[in-house]
Amino acid sequence: MPIITLLTDFRDFYPAAMKAVILTIAPQTNIVDITHGIPPQNIKWGAAALSFTAPSFPDNTVHIAVVDPGVGSERRSLAIRATGKKTQYLAGPDNGLLIPAAKTIGSFEVFEIFSRSTEKPSPTFHGRDIFAPVGAKLSLGEDIHEMGVPITDFIELPTKAPAISNNILTGEIIFIDSFGNIITNIPEEIAFKFVNYGETVFLEDRPLPFVRTYTDVNSGKPLLLIGSHGFLEISLNRANARDYFNIDTEDIIQITK
């Protein structure tokens, strides 16, 4: 049974409209909603959520992701084949949304795709009229080479690479989950070069003990850990770190010793 995942910032009835198209083309599809709760137009959050989840899916899963503030403009539509331990496909806009997930899966090829429908796609809903049909056809085994032309000048999101300098660990916030946990782009291999379990570091002069799990500190207390996604996470035990630190989604963070 084909598997297609959906990730959008749509909420409302729009995901259902995409599912209707997918099921019309590929009725046996198992559709999995990764999330439709990405903050509106927040490409970076969408890219992070997709990269955290896509690699866990089975071989030949198709991921359709739409966080698309440029819909209807000259921005291109993409399909990607990513190959590592398994092969997976991605479809979505050329705005950086898909690339982190493709890199996480393995090596990848990117194709600019074109709608072959006799009906003109809506300039405001490419998720339904372009990406859903492409994803459905990919799930049925249609050759990605028949859908478009390979490109190498795809868009990537600007990022600040994590770095350690003068006892300061600098990184970027890439996601804040519904619990208020602040997820950074600092991978565990860099984190462990800066701090070890049991040590305490600081964010905005507030102590952050580096622990293995949330309950290693008292309720309501801040902490630092490696999340299940493999990146450094700033959290509170049974409380909201975003509110506690008053951190914005676009902030650069600096953790000090």
UniProtKB/TrEMBL annotation:
Belongs to the SAM hydrolase / SAM-dependent halogenase family. Residues 4-148 form the S-adenosyl-l-methionine hydroxide adenosyltransferase N-terminal domain. This is S-adenosyl-l-methionine hydroxide adenosyltransferase. Pfam families: SAM_HAT_C, SAM_HAT_N. It comes from the Archaea. Coiled coil: none annotated. Residues 171-253 form the S-adenosyl-l-methionine hydroxide adenosyltransferase C-terminal domain. Keywords: S-adenosyl-L-methionine. It comes from Candidatus Ethanoperedens thermophilum.
